[in-house]
Amino acid sequence: MLHIALQALADLFTLERLGYLALGVLVGLIVGLIPGLGGVAGMSLLLPFVYGMDPSSAMALMIGIMAANHTSDTFPAVLVGVPGSAGAGATVMDGYPLAKQGKAALALGASFTASMLGGLFGAAVLFAVLPVFRPLILSFGSPELFMLTLLGISTVAILARGRMVKGLLAAVFGLLLSTVGAAPASPDYRYTFDWPYLTDGLSIALVAMAVFALPEFIDLLRRNKPISQVTDNLTTGRFDGAKEALKRPGLIVRSSGMGALLGAIPGVGGSAVSWIVYGLTARMARVRNKFGKGDIRGVIAPEAANNAMEGGQLIPAIMFGIPGSGTTAVLLGGLVLVGLQPGPEMVSDANLPVVLTIVWSLAVANILATGVCFSLRNTVAKLCLIPARKLVPFLLVAVVLAVYQHGRDWGDIAMLLMIGAFGWFALRAGWSRAAFVVGFVLGPPAERYLWISMGRYEFDWLARPGVIAIAIAIIAVLFAGLARGKRSPAVPVPAGERVLESTGSAK
What we know:
Radius of gyration: 22 Å
Low-confidence stretches: 227-231, 489-507
Shape: globular
Strand content: under 5%
Number of domains: 1
């Protein structure tokens, strides 16, 4: 596998793919500055452009967004005390007090360095598990693959975060929407209502942008506030923060390890990871009384964990087709758009180079994002000053143009508005939009594998050991979601304090 990995690295450093990776990093850095927008909306914006690209270039673009978002989200967390994404929630605890003490450059420097090292750690973990899981995954047949899609859909019990019934209903709506168009095993059209536009079904790019991006833009416009009022010079002492991070290799390795491990558990999310790691770091520290008042360790630990988490989240997403967050759900949609099926097929000989491109893209994107943040920190920080009323119209135009260029049909615009209205309702009512997208993405493969299994084995496939084992896992996931809902009932979060619920909730 080593020679394939080296070839994937060489392919990534071609001018075209490196350009796509840099574009993804740029978009990820920008969306990370806007509280509540996050990597999910950023990835959704570029989904229409992924269609027709070669798989490696498409993954470089999307992984660039995914990796960079958790680097730039530190800017609003430190400068304003509002996390740019759910994962930066714990960074606020000590990053913002440091900024108020005139040490914003120190906090940002430490954060960027920890983020880069954590991201490299996560990429290394993803690469290390490939040889371990690959033989097991390749032994799966259509019955096991069908059960894996059900396991992926069952993760909505976790993604719904205390709202299990709403999460399951959202997933059912996603499943129903995925059945629009031609049936896979019969010459029938379903739910087209005699509208020719619907005969080909709906694009994951359109659905993701309508559900994730539009509602967040509307909320930003409604609040109509600039992200930050801080205009201090952030150059002085910028490398002191990097030195502070590098002086604590044990803290970075421990935090990155916990981040990657927790990220591999579907549904844990960036917010939970950062707070768990922050709490454990404070508990294990010899001197604890500075945490929450400007302790640099309280910045380093959650930032390292956040970026390492991305590598962990990609393990179940790529190998089993199980999205553990909103970003990985959109990433699975991107794989489908370029003709790849998330799950065991991804680690076959034909698709292994794409997986290794994802690993290398994750590593290089973290380095590139850190370099940009270090060199352009004053310029990037000024983007936080743009009022929402000036920013949102450009974003809305970008969404409409992106959707229209994908199919060049006015029906795309109509469906964008209709599904966007549902997305806004889901946002305001506390329904899991990530669960909806999971249902939409996994609906077609679930139906296809079920037809194949029934055609080959009738009902005998239900007695296969792998099917039984996965069924037990599904039951365990559902019971865990039910128990979690009883222990921690969902509490509505004010719109001004909310970040995308698909990746966690701000604390």
